[in-house]
Amino acid sequence: MSESRTEISSLGEFGLIEHLTRNIELQNASSIVGVGDDAAVIDHFGKQTVITTDLLVEGIHFDLMYTPLKHLGYKSVVVNLSDIYAMNATPTQITVSIAFSNRFSVEALSEFYEGIYAACEKYGVDLVGGDTSSSQKGFVISVTAIGEVTPGKYVRRDTAKKGDLICCSGDLGAAYVGLLFLEREKQIYLESPQVQPDLEGESYVIGRLLKPEARKDIVEFLEIQNIVPTSMMDISDGLSSEILHICEQSKLGCVLYEEKLPIAEEMRKAAFKFEIDPTACALSGGEDYELLFTMSQSDYEKIVLNEQISVIGYMTDAEEGMKINTRGGQVHPISAQGWNAFKK
Ligand code: ADP
Ligand code: MG
């Protein structure tokens, strides 16, 4: 914690809001009225508006024992922007609502907002409003993101076609393994506080959990390449659960290839330390915030050189079910939890 502690009560609610939002400079022409009035005003100049919201509750979605407040602020924004990009849209504004107990000081909330503003700057979005309340216990965060898309260019989950390639950005499973490390160190700390945390060498997987990014670059790449994915979503709950959504909503089946799943070397090594299967982590680990999309086979040449995009399978008839071909040449059904290897 920081050296000085200013009680929220010394500023009051309005003083606190003013303190947290005093330096906002609106970046988007579409942000007409921002913080300070009864509501924000947004002009999307003939574009369609995309909107998404997420609620994050201390003890359920995050643990402040190992989550720095600045990272938490950043991540709270990024997870919402990821949903906007997953619609093939561009995020433009956010609102942030918070409730906090008297455990939190002005300094702590300022740190949280530093993370919020860092994400706003990185992704070019404006903070245009929010709400502030106290809570009896813990920290509650609600972020709403608003974006814009050329009419009709949004991409849904229910429009994949048979034969389409299934693609995924970045690499999968690392955030989950990062969580395993942090949870392990937390337990050790609770039992023996004098023991120094041993997270040496795990910065990649831990960073993937604590400081995820939204795949703005992928949406921009697809646009430049003139690729409109046939379906798209972001991977927040794990690949297998997300591909099930695309299959069910598009009324299709799929085949994935284990050897094609993008796995970072850091994740593979880290998974072995916990004696778990990296493939299971890639299928079932959550919070990667990568994009999962399908596209026509005729677009293959346009993506083949992009190392940030992996083709991991293809869409089939619904009757074929949802399957994964393993390295060993076996075929397993995919369930929302991934596959059985995960439960060993
Ligand atoms: P109201 O009483 O109408 O709800 P508030 O006093 O809650 O208004 O908010 C005043 C202004 O400050 C509004 O523009 C609101 O969107 C903004 N605001 C309130 N809380 C936050 C916050 N935590 N972060 C950013 N903006 C906020
Ligand atoms: Mg209010």
From TrEMBL:
The keyword ATP-binding applies. It catalyses: thiamine phosphate + ATP = thiamine diphosphate + ADP. Its EC number is 2.7.4.16. Residues 36-149 form the PurM-like N-terminal domain. It holds the Pfam family AIRS. InterPro entries: PurM-like_C_sf (IPR036676), PurM-like_N (IPR016188), PurM-like_N_sf (IPR036921), ThiL-like (IPR006283). Keywords: ATP-binding, Kinase, Magnesium, Metal-binding, Nucleotide-binding, Thiamine biosynthesis, Transferase. Substrate binds at H61, E287, W339. CDD domains: ThiL. One of its GO terms (molecular function) is thiamine-phosphate kinase activity. It comes from the Bacteria. One of its GO terms (biological process) is thiamine diphosphate biosynthetic process. Mg(2+) 3 binds at D38, D83, D234. Reaction mechanism of ThiL seems to utilize a direct, inline transfer of the gamma-phosphate of ATP to TMP rather than a phosphorylated enzyme intermediate. Belongs to the thiamine-monophosphate kinase family. Catalyzes the ATP-dependent phosphorylation of thiamine-monophosphate (TMP) to form thiamine-pyrophosphate (TPP), the active form of vitamin B1. This is Thiamine-monophosphate kinase. It comes from Niastella yeongjuensis. The gene is thiL.
